Amino acid sequence: MVEKVAGKKIEKKDDARELIIQANELMVSGKFERALPILDKALKLKPDREDLWLTKADALSSIGRHREAIECCDQALKIKPDYDDAHYHKGFALCALGKYEESLPCFDEALRIDPGFSNALAYKGIALTHLRRDDEAISFYKQALEKDPDNVLMLANLGSLLSSQPEHLIDALPYLKRALDLQPNNPGLLIIIVQALDKIGRFDESEMLLNRLARLIEKEDGQSKKDSSGLPPISQ
């Protein structure tokens, strides 16, 4: 039997595989909304595929539909209770909804299954930061960075958290500067470092970074004016 899906004719026996390929291609291109109906078709054919449920959860979270993503994670966990990625993604979606306390058991379960799961370590740190459990958050950020030392988000989060504590200001700077090395045009990082340097009286360094920030903002403003000129964008 031949069926037409997304403009293509697919042999019935290969439907699930082809649908999964199509959905993944759309997601890689950032077309999450278009991927969802294709994933639904695949799940009708393969409802016992926990990875498909998680892929759908990923697509839903990517367009802000976190509650539905949690439902998909729960479906994946019914099929495979020790699915570390599903526990992590459920925690991620709960964090996105501001349910930080509820997210912690999800990250804990993911870490029980895989103690080196860097994203679970990182996002548990984020949840703990929002819960004002700073010392615990610092510990998890550091563990995450041991696994993924160039994670800019974790470097910035740890540096920012440390810089908010007077006794840890000096400790914050290496993390913040490493993040800035990786993302030299990040204005948020520049502002955090300037504030930290001012607090410890290193005004010459902070002034240099302020000048760098001013040039960056001026450049972005100039680009914004060009983009709003009314002319169509140049095709790449």
How would you explain this protein's 3D organization?
It is a single chain. The chain is mainly α. The protein has a domain at 150-223: Serine Threonine Protein Phosphatase 5, Tetratricopeptide repeat (Alpha Horseshoe). Helix content is 73%, strand content 3%. It has twelve helices and two strands. A two-stranded antiparallel sheet has the order 1-2. A hairpin with a 2-residue loop joins strand 1 (2-5) and strand 2 (8-11). Helix 2 runs antiparallel to helix 3, helix 3 (50-62) packs parallel to helix 5 (84-96) and helix 8 runs antiparallel to helix 9. It is globular, with a radius of gyration of 22 Å. Residues 1-13 and 226-236 have low confidence and may be disordered.
The average pLDDT score comes to: 89
Q: What's the name of the CATH homologous superfamily of the domain at 150-223?
A: Tetratricopeptide repeat domain
CATH architecture of the domain at 150-223: Alpha Horseshoe
Write down the CATH topology of the domain at 150-223: Serine Threonine Protein Phosphatase 5, Tetratricopeptide repeat
Major beta-sheet overview: 2 strands, antiparallel
Quickly list its features.
236 residues; mainly alpha; Serine Threonine Protein Phosphatase 5, Tetratricopeptide repeat; two-stranded antiparallel sheet; disordered N terminus
List the helices and strands and how they pair.
Layout: E1 2-5, E2 8-11, H1 15-28, H2 32-45, H3 50-62, H4 66-79, H5 84-96, H6 100-113, H7 118-130, H8 134-147, H9 152-163, H10 169-182, H11 187-199, H12 203-227
Antiparallel strand pairs: 1-2
Helix pairs in contact: 1-2, 2-3, 3-4, 3-5, 4-5, 5-6, 5-7, 6-7, 7-8, 8-9, 9-10, 10-11, 11-12
